[in-house]
Structure formats: structure tokens, C-alpha cells
Amino acid sequence: MPGVALAAAVLLVALILGGAYAEFLGRTETAASRVSLKPTGLAPGASGEVRIEDAGTNARVNLEVSGLPELRPDEYYELWFVKDGERISGGGFTVDDEGDATVTMSAPGAAERYPSMGITREESPGDPRPSPTKVLGGELRRP
Prior knowledge:
Elements: H1 2-31, E1 33-39, E2 47-55, E3 58-66, E4 75-83, E5 86-93, E6 101-108, E7 116-123, E8 134-139
């Protein structure tokens, strides 16, 4: 009988820890902010989504885009966080032959306070400011 009681106690502890872990995962899931990116006239068939998660002093940025125009060898796309005309870069990326990319980047933790986002087409090497060739944009939705 002591073995049955021990097994029951171990099972109970496992269930409690499993429930706590599931609750933790749920909180992590809902703590993420999302941005659905809409196309501009420069990329009418494009779409994308950005998911921002807290990662301590930084933010983890998961970006998925599709249908972006093909880049020249000296070009790349750049993700921007925008607030009151001020912009901070979330990072640069390229796309595959179909114009698709799935990228994980790190951005300053303050990036989540910027309510708008955009993706521009940039030249390398080039001006560190965003170019006027915005291909996708969207507004941050908080959970």
C-alpha cells in the first residue's frame, strides 16, 4: 500500500506542476502583441504579421511576410517601429524567390511602445534612415 500512496502523491505533484506550466505558457501567449501588416501600392499582393514578445530588456520579434517584390542584389527589407514620426529599426531581412520570409529578430524593449510598424525596401549601403518605399504597414494590437 505505501507504493500506491507514493505513486498517487507523485501523480498529484505532476498534475499540479503541469497545470502551473500550462498556465505559464498561456500567460506568455497572451502577453505577445500582434501586428497584421497590410500592403501598400508598392506591393499590392504582399501581407505579413509581426508578433512581439517580451524577452527581458529586449523584445523578441517574430516576422512572417509573403508576396513581397523581388529584391535587387544590393537591396533588403527593413522593419521599423513608428511613434509620432520617430522610427527605430527592428532589423533587416531578405526574402526567398516567392517573396516570403520567416524571421526572428531582437529589438529594444521600448519597441513595443511604438504603435505603428512598417516595412521599407532599402539599398545597401545606404542612408540609415527609412526610405520612402514602404511596402507593408500596420498598427499594434495589444492583448
